[in-house]
Amino acid sequence: MDIDVRGPRFGAAVTTVVLAIVLVTGSAWLLAWQTLAFLLGAAGGVTRSPYGLLFRKAVRPRLGPPTAFEAPEPPRFAQAVGLVFAALGLVGYTLGPGWLGLAATGAALAAAFLNAVFGYCLGCETYLLVRRMTAGAK
Question: How far apart are CA 96 and CA 94, in angstroms?
Answer without folding.
Answer: 6
